[in-house]
Amino acid sequence: MIVHAENVTVTYPGRDTPAVAGVSLGLEPGTLVGIVGPNGSGKTTLLRAILGTLPLSAGSVTMLGRPVADWRPRDLARQVAVVTQREEMLFPLTVEETVALGRYAHLAPLAAQGGHDRSVVREAMDRASVTEFASRRTHTLSGGEWQRVRIARALAQEPRVLVLDEPTASLDVRHEMEVFELIHRLAGDGIATLLVSHHLNLASRYADRLLLLHRGRVAAEGPPAAVLRPEIITDCFGWRVAVTSWCDGAPQVIPLKPGE
């Protein structure tokens, strides 16, 4: 198991109630696990705990069998790539320059990139389908293009684990689908992938397993059909839903109007 979180509990300073309490999660190579749940259910907090950026009140997290707290950030960045929920484009870099930033965890301080690094960058751009606009400045990109560039930069780290926090937030249907298709392909290529998403129906269609959080605790975990059940979703989200199946068998959640 490449990532193993056991009984993870996080309590923020000044708060009596844990933001995450007793959550366990395992992640194998080549699998896509979706973390879903209502706003404030602890999804991002759990990610930060798994990545070692939040101290644990209880429990443990190991990465490749080693406690995540024991990893040096530079070494961890060679194994785990993170695409955060939001990121501003601070400098007018080209797409290729931006993707190349993913190589710095593999370089000595102040070292220039070599032939292998440039090859990895080109491959990352190809895999994320951003090569065609490699010379464009990032501020000229659409939201969907920018998200794919950020994923390409993560791939340039040559990670074994890819962690994404709401990577399709504010995207339209086409760009949202393009990003989910890309993430699914990367998991199929063998990358262990952990995805936080508000989109229950897309998470259901693309994830191998779902972890549903409610008030910081696990409400359900397992294949999408075991998690996206009407009584569970209604209880967690506080709104009545129906659940049907798409043609591929994936459960699809339909919010009901009052009275339905």
What keywords describe this structure?
globular, 260 residues, alpha/beta, Rossmann fold, 9 helices
Structure description:
By secondary structure, this protein is an alpha/beta fold. The chain has two domains: 146 residues, 3-Layer(aba) Sandwich (Rossmann fold), CATH 3.40.50.300; 73 residues, no CATH class. Helices cover 31% and strands 25% of the residues. It has nine helices and twelve strands. The strands form three sheets. Strands 6-7-8-3-9-10 form a six-stranded mixed beta sheet, sandwiched between helices. It has a four-stranded antiparallel beta sheet with strand order 2-1-4-5. A two-stranded antiparallel ribbon has the order 11-12. α4 crosses α5 and α5 packs parallel to α6. The longest helix is centred in the last third of the chain and has 16 residues. The chain is globular and about 60 Å long. The chain starts with a strand and ends in a 5-residue tail after the last strand. The mean pLDDT is 94.
Fold blueprint:
Blueprint lengths: L2 E8 L9 E8 L4 E5 L6 H8 L7 E6 L2 E2 L5 H5 L2 E4 L11 H6 L14 H13 L15 H13 L5 E5 L7 H16 L3 E5 L3 H7 L2 E6 L2 E6 L1 H4 L2 H8 L3 E5 L5 E5 L5
Parallel strand pairs: 3-8, 3-9, 6-7, 7-8
Antiparallel strand pairs: 1-2, 1-4, 4-5, 9-10, 11-12
Helix pairs in contact: 4-5, 5-6
Question: Brief description of this entry?
Answer:
With 260 residues, this protein is an alpha/beta fold. The protein is 31% helix and 25% strand. The N and C termini lie far apart (44 Å).
User: How many structurally independent domains?
Assistant: 2
Cα end-to-end separation? 44 Å
Cα-based radius of gyration, to the nearest Å: 19 Å
Structural class: alpha/beta
Unreliable spans are: none
